[in-house]
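Kindly inspect this chain:
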Amino acid sequence: MRATSSGGLPSFPERPVAAVLAILVAANLLNNLLLPEAYLPTCVASAFLLLLIARRDGCSWADLGLTPETAGRGLRWAVGAAGLVLLGYLAAVALPVTRTAFLDERAGDLAFAAMLGNALVRIPLGTVLLEEVAFRGVLYAMLIARAGTPRAVLTSSLLFGIWHLLPSLGLSDANAAVASVVGSGDAGRTASVLAAVARGTTG
């Protein structure tokens, strides 16, 4: 049974929530600073551990959004959303005014096979898997049981924004279009990081 404070309100983080946060911090550090070459196994292993903690904490598969019914509905929405995003990207690439946004040094030296691997393997089975499991599944379900929907939404959204801090540190240096908007140097890096965190929080 989940503990509550003396005033009857849920008290968090408790041990399971703290364990989830610890895994997310470790995964973020490993992926962005300590062991980026192990990105995919780190994401998969972290997602597995998070699901294990959530299940032991009492979350059902329905709480985590992973029943066959919700999976089918989610897949349909995902296909539709991916189609719209793809159309948007194709339009942006076709227009000279937005084409420079795709000139990113981090992808400039990648071979076509590596770019395809990123798009079809690294991103869906690494980035998307961990982020969806962590923030829209495990963390949200565990917090909503302890603190109710408003606090769960707010807390998971803020943490998702902070999650983007490390990955965005070199964004203004690697992408000319971003630098043209936020500027270069320390001020540009700070602005791009704040923008990425805000985008993650509201996304």
